[in-house]
Amino acid sequence: MGRTYRIGQAARKLGLNTSVLRYWETEFPQLQPVRTRKGQRLYTDEHLELLAVIQGLLHEQGMTIEGARRKLERDEQIVAAREAGDEETCASLELEELRRSVASELLAMKRLLEGNGA
């Protein structure tokens, strides 16, 4: 399994509270740390990478939990399609992701312009 981190260690590495990690476990099905016999959570390096992605989506990109969850699910679908050699599905999913990104950027620009009285 490689290196593991208890919840406090993982939270410190990411600059988050342990309560945030526990909450994200309930919101993101991809995030399922291993539990010891005593019920303590053990996070792997892969979990920390996923947590950093979630943190970036929520805190840096300003996504909602639902939006971040959908983004992670789409990313998983793209990877699965790519691994299966299904280039058509992969291209379709990537195009849809690009469309959503452009629409989001346009909406943000519109709000910015409306907020400035333009």
From TrEMBL:
An example molecular function term from Gene Ontology annotations: DNA-binding transcription factor activity
A Pfam family: MerR_1
Segments forming domain HTH merR-type: 4-74
PROSITE patterns: HTH_MERR_2 (PS50937)
UniProt cross-references to InterPro entries, sorted A to Z: DNA-bd_dom_put_sf, MerR-type_HTH_dom, MerR_fam
UniProt keyword Metal-binding present: no
Matches recorded under Gene3D superfamilies: 1.10.1660.10
Keyword list, A-Z: DNA-binding
Transmembrane segments: none
Keyword set includes 4Fe-4S: no
Record's protein name: DNA-binding transcriptional MerR regulator
Organism whose genome encodes this protein: Desulfobaculum xiamenense
